[in-house]
Amino acid sequence: MRTLIFSVFLLSIYPNLISAQKGGKVWSDNISDERIKTVQLYMEGWNLSYPVIRLRSDEKLILGFDLLADQPETYYYTIVHCTKDWTESDIFPNDYLEGLPEDQIDNYKPSFNTRISYYHYRLSIPNERIRIRISGNYIFKVYKFGEPDKPAFTKRFMVTEELVKISASAHRPSMTDYYNTGQQVDVTVSFAAVRVNDPYRDFSTFILQNGKWINSKDNLKPDFIGSNELKFNSISDKNIFPAGNEYRYFDIKSIRYQSEYIRMIDFANNSYQVFLFPSENREFKPYFYWQDFNGKYYIAIQEGRDMDVEADYVYVYFTLPSKYVVDGGKMYVSGALNNWNFNNDNLMAYDRDKAQYQCTMLLKQGWYNFEYIFLKEGEKRADPSVFEGNHYETENEYLILVYYRNPLDRYDRLAGSQLTSSTQLKH
Questions:
Q1: I need a surface site. Which of 267, 291, 355, 365 has the fewest CB within 10 A?
Q2: What pLDDT sits at residue 361?
Q3: In the beta sheet, which residues pair with residue 318?
């Protein structure tokens, strides 16, 4: 009771916070402050995990980020509940949060022995001051104190219940148009533990390939409804993904040694410059398997112990030879290294004299996966076929999210989640 009264009191003294959270805004992973780098959100103990935890469990999410600056700055955070489509929910913070409506991030420390100075910030959720009451989609909103409407960055995460059981498998599509280039994800959802009046209306299923929202299959409805079961295994293309290719990679955990795919490491303008070997066009090459991180990255340093503050920032130069400019769109370096976004940070420019696309990115030391993506003008989603190719054999992960909302609910509950891999591919 004391916690509830305290929460109501705090909400009364933070009217700007409440007003900033209302209005039906659509949220996404975004960094507004160019000094903020390496924003990571993962389950505690597994740096490459997706930001999904179970409600009322011991699981925690770890949020980490760097501020490129010589002096620390004061950052606060709040958590915003969203619908299944990432539109801000119309419920109040005390409906989905227990404790404070906002809190200061007071765990930070300076970089040590790095050429580029930064402060590393770290936070875990739930914690003693903020806990999650209900399931669903959430946004971490990090901002300077008093400026909740000007977030430095936002990051998505999900809190799931165990209302349903999900089984899934990825296989080679039966449709001839995608037979050699796609992967179909079949899903069965058992809702025997939930009393449902209209399962077709009350459930919505989302499928993400390698955790990417940019090409997710959204609001899927079942092809068949059986006895307390929903089945998604149609012969249409609604649950078929371009298979892509294994991700390209490079290793910059050391700046003393040139690892595979590193052509040269130089030091100029008081920072390290890492030049990758020119990338080959793989669009029409045969498929070749190697183990990757499915587009993610892992911060690491060979000459140090604490990767959070001893890993330096280096400029990485990407080059993609091409005899011509691909018309009708733009080329990007894509991956978790840029939150799967398409913006100026990862945009490639074409050099006509050298006949190549090129891009420079400031990245923290570690292992990185990436791919080259051509985004057509006016489109928000892209097929990796140009320069990368699509092969049904490619190893991909698929995250299945099942949302539930009956007519009496005021929010979308995340009824369950399941992760499957195409390593179990059926030919």
A1: 291
A2: 98
A3: 359
